[in-house]
Specification:
15 helices; Helicase, Ruva Protein, domain 3; 15% strand; 5-stranded parallel β-sheet; globular; 11 strands
Length: 334
């Protein structure tokens, strides 16, 4: 007969939560030593990391996407790997492949760069769809299959992919199945005039900022475990469900969604909403998800899960505008 583990005392849970919040605040501060501005981007990437999800960062070249991911690896103490995606990149270059072993006379698996904690998939949409799809199993199952054998990836495992806007030359749109595996799609904006001046001053002077490690890998695992303990009340859960249903043109009460959306969010969108909202609540010092948490996390959690009609593209209607419209129609009092 199996016995469930004894519940953790409330005082111990609260102490762990306070420690996690302090460590995460320290991570934000450490990132700020190198990253100028981009506060929303940093917050969303950190939320996704704690939730155990993957992040797709989109922005034009030169906005510091790669620097952000590299610095995140330094301040969290996690293993860091980078793959530069190019049109000639092959799936085996990512996952690894079977190679001939001279000593045994047989084949052995040579692990690829995907076997790390934080994987930077740089300019992921410059690779062909076949190569992009090599990440599918790893992102969902945290395993790699080669030669009929499955190989477990390290824990935690997070893909932080950067991509250039699709209107730029030499890019391939990510398959919907792969887009859906990203917990967040984060848009990296162009810096303000003040931030540009600080970037120029900070990166062209004699001293270069060096980030300090602010987190241990075990702290991140503890944070992810605590997130799962945050409560979602039934009425808050139902509101999250209604938000997901409202992204589907055949079931949405929003006229703009009915007109401009081809396909709505999958159930993974609901999982992303709830997990990200739980992280937001925990970082705010609460053990319950509020309506405001769902509203805050909805744009990055849903913008890449709504497939738009050609009419929307022609009229300049964006997924963000539709998410905002859904939130306006489905608004509720917290």
């Amino acid at each position: 007969m199996q016995h469930s583990p004894a519940p953790i005392p409330a005082a111990q849970l609260q102490a762990q939560a306070e420690t996690v919040r302090a460590r995460l605040d320290a991570v934000v501060g450490a990132l700020g030593q190198v990253i100028v501005g981009q506060h929303t981007v940093v917050d969303q990437v950190l939320t996704s990391l704690v939730a155990g999800g993957h992040v797709l960062l989109e922005g034009v070249p030169g906005l510091g996407k790669t620097l952000l991911v590299h610095t995140l690896g330094q301040v969290t103490g996690l293993g860091f790997g980078r793959i530069q995606f190019t049109p000639d990149l092959m799936p085996g270059d990512i996952t690894g492949t079977q190679v001939f072993d001279r000593e045994t006379g047989g084949l052995r698996f040579s692990a690829g760069p995907i076997f790390t904690n934080l994987l930077l998939a740089d300019e992921i949409n410059r690779a062909t769809p076949r190569t992009q799809s090599a990440l599918l199993e790893a992102m969902q199952e945290h395993t790699v299959t080669a030669g009929g054998q499955s190989h477990l990836l390290p824990s935690p495992f997070c893909v932080l992919a950067t991509q250039n806007p699709l209107e730029m030359e030499g890019t391939y749109p990510l398959p919907e199945a792969q887009l859906d595996r990203f917990l967040y799609k984060v848009l990296v904006p162009f810096p303000t005039d003040e931030e540009l001046a600080r970037i120029g001053e900070q990166t062209t002077g004699p001293d270069q900022a060096t980030p300090t490690q602010a987190l241990e890998p075990t702290d991140l695992l503890t944070a992810s475990e605590l997130v799962r303990l945050v409560i979602v009340a039934p009425h808050v859960l139902q509101h999250a469900v209604r938000l997901i249903v409202a992204t589907h043109p055949d079931r949405s009460p929003v006229p703009e969604v009915q007109r401009f959306v081809r396909y709505g969010s999958s159930p993974r969108g609901l999982q992303a909403l709830l997990l990200a909202a739980k992280v937001t609540a925990l970082r705010a010092g609460r053990w319950n998800v509020a309506f405001a948490d769902l509203k805050k996390v909805a744009p990055p959690a849903l913008r890449h899960r709504m497939i738009l009609q050609f009419e929307a593209i022609a009229e300049g209607v964006t997924a963000d505008a539709l998410v905002d419209r859904i939130l306006a129609v489905m608004r509720t009092e917290d």
